[in-house]
Amino acid sequence: MRIFLLECKKVILSPVLIGLFLLFTGFNFLVIFNSSDHRAELKMVNEIIDTYGREITPSSLQQFQDDIQNDLLKLQQLTGKRYDSVNDFLEDLDVEEYERYSKQEQAFLSGLQVKEMYESIASSIDENYEEIDIEKEGEVALEQYQLSGKAAETYLAENEKFTKRFDEMIRNGEHKQWFFAGKAYYMHTLLFKDLFSKMTIEILLLVILSTTFLATYEFEQRTHLVAFATQRGRRLMNNKLVASLVMAFVITGLVLGSTLGVFFLVFDYSHVWETSVSSAFNWEYNFPYVSWWDLSFAQFLLGVIGVLFVSVLLISALTFSISLFIKNSYVSFFVTAASFILLYMLPSFMPHSSNWLFVAGYTVPTLVMAIPGLFMGSSGLIFFRNFEWATICSWTAITMGVLMMTYRRFVKSDIQ
Amino acid sequence: MIVVKDVSKQYGDFTALEDISLEFSNGLYGLLAPNGAGKTTLIKMLATLISPSSGEIQYNGENIIAMDQRYRELLGFLPQQFGFYKNYSPAQYLLYLAALKGIPKQQARLKIDELLAKVALSDVKHKKMKKFSGGMIQRVGIAQALLNDPKILILDEPTAGLDPKERARFRHLLTDLARERLVIISTHIVSDIESIANEIIMIKNKRLLYKDSVEQICDTLHNAVYETTVDFGQLDEFRKRHVLLSEKQEYGKMIVRFIHKGEKKDGWIPVQPQLEDVFLYEYQDEMIEGL
Question: Does A238 touch chain B if contact means CB atoms closer than 8 Å?
Fold first, then answer.
């Protein structure tokens, strides 16, 4: 335990790692604050859920529409003219005229505008989802990704499973739950693509640096001859491995904790934690986010965080193996980074007619870089239902094998 | 007791040590050879840092590699290049190494204070080592080797960087330590061990040359070491014909100390051979190559 703590101390006191952590965290805060223009409007969803419940039922939607009509009557009292939509009124209004209204009236106008937007989306859910033909989407994907032969067969077979899941999702009404309007605010993209992608890269940089730093520390400080001739001997590497993994966990926790903490302070998600991540409102681009399982936003977020933690630990362990082999932190860092990029690019070297195309995507780099689409049936070539657990299980086995091999080699190797 | 049995070390085609057999019991052993002779290879094998390509090293009849931690807990080791953590103080660094040596924290603190006093570093025990001189670093190295009160103490070039006063102090320390334990000092500086070693081990061409007391090794040059006076003009010619051990100028002439294994000539005064004479004689080729 003492050795483990002393090893951790080396990372904790590293000025480079502390500096990078502060820099990355500051950068993440900047991204959050720069994207916070709509934070006041986002609160409307909380009000809607408070008033009409999380699920969109015909009666709750009717109630919502009635209330909007009442608001339009208030607008009539305010403007002296009847409008079918607040947008009609706002279209004819210039800035000077708008400024003549009190702050309270302005808030009423913009609130009504947001309500109308949500009502419009809610009213057209059935219509929009009826237009979705998953089988046809599959055919389009074959052309888009130029799949043929076995690869096309595998893709269509999985797509068929997804069709069933899509129908089940419709039957469950998972899509009929209030969430932030995707096409207006892109909150899923902001959180899971912009922020998580940045955090993932930052975490990986910090973890790879800290792992190579710890694994090669004795060799780089030239203390290896003293350290490995002590009673602990080469078993010191066991303590270093555990310290590396724990530090990887702590770094991941700190980066995620600080950034997500600020994110959820800035953006009020208090009422949407239990909303399904497959909500029709969570539709930002050509296709809505549809998860393989009935996941709430909170479950999805926890799932993503869990996958990230496991992936980071696997990458830390693999980096440790590489460092044990190379014994130089800079070279180990670049070899790890190059291996990461190579594995991420692996599918692009595969024939589009073979199942190897998909197998090559079952890698940890692909897994961590695919965070916005995790657990989703709408995430391109990695849309497979088993993608996350199969990747994690196979790479856990690979990592343990590589670790054992490099450790055994190290134990038997000469220390010069 | 440590027994080195027919140990060889190969690195591909390069032979670092060949067929070395030695026995060590308590006492002080000086491993003497010029740089590159294979001393460090043997020392690293004794510290379990490298394994023999053939043969084995035993401690009390057990292979030291198989003994693993049980062997290393008896070991104190100072390598030739003693690395240290630049941003640590001696106290912090020794505490870390004490943890690696399995010494409880409280016990380690007391031992560290005692050892830092012994190597005259108590005043700077909390100062960062990056500001230390080479001699101070070497003294930290000596302290760390003694942390676990080892039964086997192996020191590779321990006096490097020490000034004459520190060397003398260090020799006294070693003499005390060797009373109850096995101490092996690897060096190429004869004066470091000549007066304190129970036995000297000399390695030549990767093989064992001598393992004997200083007196017996010196006896190999009995009646072969002389001193004589030579004119400056004859000095070059004299150098070509004899193995010169030392030269000193006195009253306009040169007094030379040399080795001659043939018939004695007039004017040559036989002198008592010293360990340095044997060293210079045995390694004359390596030294010329090294120049």
Answer: no
Question: Nearest residue on chain A to B105, judged by CA atoms?
Answer: A2
Q: How far is B11 from chain A (nearest CA, A)?
A: 11
How far is the alpha carbon of B201 from chain A, nearest alpha carbon, in Å?
23
Which of A222, A231, A236 is facing B81, going by the closest CB pair?
A222
Residues of B with CB under 8 A from a CB of A: 44, 47-51, 68-69, 72-73, 75, 77-79, 81-87, 95-97, 99-102, 105, 141, 144, 148
Q: How far is CA B177 from the centre of its chain?
A: 15
Vertex A232: Cα angle to A226 and A235 (nearest 5) = 105
Query: What are the angstrom distances between the C-alpha of A237 and each of A78, A227, A230, A397, B20?
Result: 74, 10, 13, 20, 31
Q: Are residues A113 and A221 in the same domain?
A: no
Residues of B in contact with A236 (CB under 8 A): 100
Residue with tokens 């599918």: A347
Could you say which DSSP state residue A10 is in? H
* Domain assignment present for B284: no
Q: Which residue segment(s) compose the domain that A129 sits in?
A: 40-149
- Residue A281 CB-density burial (10 A; 0-12 exposed, 13-18 middle, 19+ buried): buried
Sign of the Cα torsion A254, A256, A258, A261 reads negative
Residues B152 and B254 in one domain: no
Chain pair A-B, CB pairs under 8 angstroms: 79
Q: Note whether A142 and A191 are same-domain residues.
A: no
A139 plus A189 within the same structural domain: no
Whether the predicted interface score ipTM is above 0.85: yes
pTM here?
Answer: 0.88
Amino acid identity at B65: I
Q: Are A236 and A228 in contact (CB under 8 A)?
A: yes
Position B60, amino acid: N
Cα distance between residue B264 and residue B276, in whole Å = 21
Domain identity same for B235 and B112:
no
Facing residues of B63 across strands?
Answer: B58
Residues of chain B in contact with residue A18, where contact means CB-CB under 8 angstroms, are: none
- For residue A222 the two structure tokens come to 């030239």
Q: In tens digits, what is the pLDDT along chain A, a chain of 416 residues?
A: 888 999 999 999 899 999 999 999 999 999 999 988 888 888 888 889 988 988 889 899 899 889 888 888 888 887 777 888 888 778 777 787 777 878 888 888 888 888 889 988 888 888 888 888 888 888 888 888 888 899 999 999 998 999 999 999 999 889 899 998 888 888 899 999 999 999 999 999 999 999 999 999 999 999 999 999 999 999 999 999 999 999 999 999 999 999 999 999 999 998 999 999 999 988 888 888 899 999 999 999 999 999 999 999 999 999 999 999 998 999 999 999 999 999 999 998 999 899 899 999 999 999 999 888 899 887 677 888 889 999 999 999 999 999 999 999 999 899 98
Please tell me which residue of chain A has the smallest CA distance to B95: A6
Rounded distance, CA B3 to CA B24, Å?
6
Judge whether A339 lies within some domain: yes
**Taking Cα atoms as reference points, which of B98, B125, B141, B96 lies closest to residue A7?**
B96
- Is position A71 within any domain? yes
Paired with B270 in beta bridges are: B226
Instruction: Assess contact for A353 and A149: CB atoms under 8 A.
Output: yes
Read off the tokens for B167: 């060397």
- Measured in whole angstroms, how far is the alpha carbon of residue A291 from the centre of its chain? 13
| Strand intervals (E) in chain B | 2-11, 14-24, 27-32, 54-59, 62-63, 75-78, 152-156, 182-187, 199-204, 207-212, 225-230, 243-250, 253-259, 269-270
Q: What DSSP line would sit under B164-205, residue for residue?
A: HHHHHHHHHHHHHHTTTSEEEEEES-HHHHTTT-SEEEEEET
3-class DSSP state for residue A175?
Answer: coil
